[in-house]
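Fig. S4 source data, part A: sequence.
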Amino acid sequence: MSFKLDHAVFFGRTWDECLGMFALKDTDLSGLRILDCPGGPDALVAEGIKRDLDILAVDPQYDMSIDVLAAQGRKEIVETMEQWQQDPGTAWDQEKADEFKRLKLEALNSFISAFGEHPERYVFGSLPELPFEDDSFDLALSGNFLFVYASVERGGLMSNDQLGLDFHLEAVRELVRVASEVRMFPSFAVTGPPRRQEFVEPVMEALRSDGHQVDFVPAQWVEGEFTEFNDLIRIRKAGRSGTQSS
């Protein structure tokens, strides 16, 4: 049976995974206003607080209680990885899959702790309409949502086409509205043969036509076994300088 999802699962990444995905170092983030969107149970805010960063996350599930989020996160991490491993077309080496699951649970634990102690850092909201003013942030980071939750036929994980090209264009333009620089990961298809996910190039061309600087930057972290096309998409808003890292 082929692996498909009918909703975005409550998965998160650790601090090191996130920085690798977005090709950033700790020092790149000092002094910036940072948005994690959608944040899910990432450890970005939790670890960012420890580093005295000005960082927020936004997610449509942040209106739930901490107990519900904790239970949902653990359940979806375990069940989704079981489904992934049961499909010969997506399964990884078991040791790698176990390590991937361990890191997701580690990120979830960091998130739950910070969500309870710093609820003001977690804002309820969702793409393509965010509850922030124009240019509220210097840097918006968007990982493992855009392009990933396209349909399986288009290289994503979804059993339907609900998040099509129009949604992606609206969502990315919204991220650019609120931030001077946007970094999105991944740009590869997560199902099917190795390739760019098919919305990537049209989105990049549309943002270039809007006047923004758009390019690929090699990621510094590998998602599972996806070693080809392992780049993030970087958008620098017209008239804005963005971060100083490569």
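Fig. S4 source data, part B ends here. The longest helix spans residues 94-117.
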